[in-house]
Specification:
Layout lengths: L2 H12 L15 E3 L5 E5 L4 H10 L13 H13 L15 E4 L17 H8 L3 H11 L3 E5 L1 H12 L6 E5 L2 H6 L12 H18 L4
Helix pairs in contact: 1-5, 3-8, 4-6
């Protein structure tokens, strides 16, 4: 068994978390190649997205992760254009980066009101999972963690203050924010071409800074 999968199972048992792996065995909360120096780190899987993927697929595959909706597809497109992935954006091969969730459990987002809670709620959720996250880091030894969205950055900084040893942290906007929420300050709606172009450019910036020779 993959050591990360083992840690996920132990965390589920230790915290009496709903075991979604019985229903969604493909949902591990990570994909890609952890031997590469750049890791993209998100908060948690979206239960709505998980259900959408599950309903339309009869074959379970790790590649169903980050492959649910327009935000995921923009993210994959950006990874290919930046050189963090080869081949078709939606296939399961050619990863030159690693993508992971700090919080592996999907059920915490099924109540929309949770998004309105203060950051302490998310920090408490994240503290269930440091054993898994630390095992990932121990095995992969990343050089940089790219927080996907500011909430992820907040959680990473919180873990660091709890004496969790982490590498350098950088930040990009969340792909779901680009595709599904307006940028009121800029006056641009969801999925606006400029916002998508800027997001792709931000991923290219990460590549140039931290993995120029890939």
């Amino acid at each position: 068994m993959d050591p990360i999968s083992k840690e996920i199972g132990e965390t589920i048992k230790a915290h009496k978390i709903y075991n979604w792996l019985n229903e969604y065995p493909w949902l591990k909360g990570y994909i890609g190649n952890r031997s590469y120096p750049v890791w993209f780190v998100a908060e948690n899987p979206s239960l709505r997205g998980v259900k959408r993927v599950h309903d339309r697929n009869t074959i379970a595959s790790d590649n169903l992760q980050w492959n649910a909706h327009a935000g995921d597809w923009l993210f994959r497109e950006a990874l290919v254009k930046a050189g963090f992935k080869t081949g078709d954006p939606l296939d399961g091969e050619g990863w030159k980066c690693y993508i992971t969730d700090i919080i592996k459990e999907p059920e915490i987002v099924k109540d929309r009101n949770l998004k309105k809670r203060d950051s302490s709620y998310w920090k408490n959720q994240a503290m269930k999972w440091p054993a898994v996250f630390l095992e990932e880091i121990r095995l992969g030894r990343p050089e940089v963690l790219v927080a996907v969205g500011n909430q992820t950055r907040v959680i990473l900084e919180f873990l660091r203050k709890k004496d969790v040893s982490l590498p350098r942290i950088d930040l990009i906007q969340h792909y779901s924010y680009i595709m599904f929420r307006p940028d009121n300050k800029a006056g641009l709606g969801p999925g606006h071409v400029k916002r998508k172009r800027d997001f792709i450019a931000s991923v290219k910036r990460i590549k140039k800074l931290y993995a120029p020779d890939l």
